[in-house]
Structures are given as C-alpha cells and as structure tokens.
Design brief:
By secondary structure, this protein is an all-alpha fold. The protein is built from 6 helices and no strands. Helix 2 runs parallel beside helix 5 and helix 4 packs across helix 5.
Length: 124
C-alpha cells in the first residue's frame, strides 16, 4: 500500500509488499518449534500472560479454523501472530502455509488497490 501511495507502479508495489510479507511469515512457520520453546520458557512479570494469550488464540482457532484466522488476522493483529497461534493450537503446517499465502495475496491486492486509489485522489 505504501509503495502505491507514494507513486510506485501498483503491480510492483503490491508484489514487493506481498513477497516481503510472505517471506517473513514463512520464516515464522518454518522456525515454529524453536520460537515456541523460547516463548514457553520465557517468564513474564504478569503470571500467566503467555498462557492467557495461548488460550485466546486457541479459542479463535477453534472458532474460525486456519482459513478464518489467516484471512481475518490482519484486521486484528498480524498474519505473523496468526501463523504462530495456528501452529501452537495444533494446525497442520501445510494448511497454515497455504492459507497464509492466500491471505497475503488477498490483502496485498486490496492494499495495493487502496494505496493506488489514495495516490490517485491525493494527486488530483
């Protein structure tokens, strides 16, 4: 969206944004086991902070499933957190990869179009 907003061609801006986002989400998915152990071993000043977050994530995962969490996550938090939460809730890694790729594509196209629209409106 930002690239299209500042005047870069919409296709290159959207593709660059989607690619960067996809790479970072895939790194989280592929490094999930190491990240999970790090978060489980982390202590918090608030007792149960991590456990509370995990239980909320599990509730959302059970309610919406991998497709819902992947597609709706950018409205609430981020796809990165959603990917980690889906895996922590026990989702299959391949399903998480597929649905987050679909989600990044959808949000990339919408963000690019919105950025292009804003750029067009601002430049007039």
């Amino acid at each position: 969206m930002v690239g299209a907003l500042v005047g870069l061609p919409i296709i290159s801006a959207a593709l660059t944004g989607m690619l960067g986002n996809w790479i970072s989400v895939m790194l989280i998915i592929l490094l999930f086991n190491a990240l999970l152990m790090r978060f489980r071993d982390r202590t918090s000043k608030n007792d149960g902070f991590i456990q509370n977050r995990v239980s909320k994530s599990r509730e959302r995962y059970e309610k919406y499933g991998v497709p819902g969490v992947a597609i709706l996550a950018p409205l609430v938090a981020s796809g990165h957190i959603a990917a980690f939460a889906s895996l922590a809730a026990g989702a299959d890694k391949k399903r998480v990869i597929v649905w987050h790729t679909v989600s990044i594509g959808i949000w990339g196209v919408l963000g690019g179009l919105f950025g292009d629209y804003l750029h067009y409106e601002i430049m007039q």
